[in-house]
């Protein structure tokens, strides 16, 4: 039997309650391992730049306490081929979705009604993941 591959996930979300609930839900339902979290654009960009090979999925909110999730997304355009960037926002409007696509985002989910779709996405990514070589 193949071992379960946990998706190493980094979350950029400034609301602590949402962040903790999201981490708990994804770890329980979607074979996700949280490798860190940030509440601001600077924290998110700094961690992702310092750990370029230590994450598989970044989940980014657009409106942050400091800066914007768009800055985090732009900073990760040159990520490794297996890494995925998704947006989880209350403002998943058609214009926002277009801007996110321009930044190379893999998917956009609305916080108000697409959490199940995010969970399904994480499950699919985990199922597709291959064991990474030892660093």
Automatic annotation (TrEMBL):
<protein>
    <submittedName>
        <fullName>Response regulator receiver domain-containing protein</fullName>
    </submittedName>
</protein>
<keyword id="KW-0597">Phosphoprotein</keyword>
<feature type="domain" description="Response regulatory">
    <location>
        <begin position="8"/>
        <end position="126"/>
    </location>
</feature>
<dbReference type="InterPro" id="IPR001789">
    <property type="entry name" value="Sig_transdc_resp-reg_receiver"/>
</dbReference>
<dbReference type="InterPro" id="IPR011006">
    <property type="entry name" value="CheY-like_superfamily"/>
</dbReference>
<dbReference type="InterPro" id="IPR050595">
    <property type="entry name" value="Bact_response_regulator"/>
</dbReference>
<dbReference type="Pfam" id="PF00072">
    <property type="entry name" value="Response_reg"/>
</dbReference>
<dbReference type="GO" id="GO:0000160">
    <property type="term" value="P:phosphorelay signal transduction system"/>
</dbReference>
<feature type="modified residue" description="4-aspartylphosphate">
    <location>
        <position position="61"/>
    </location>
</feature>
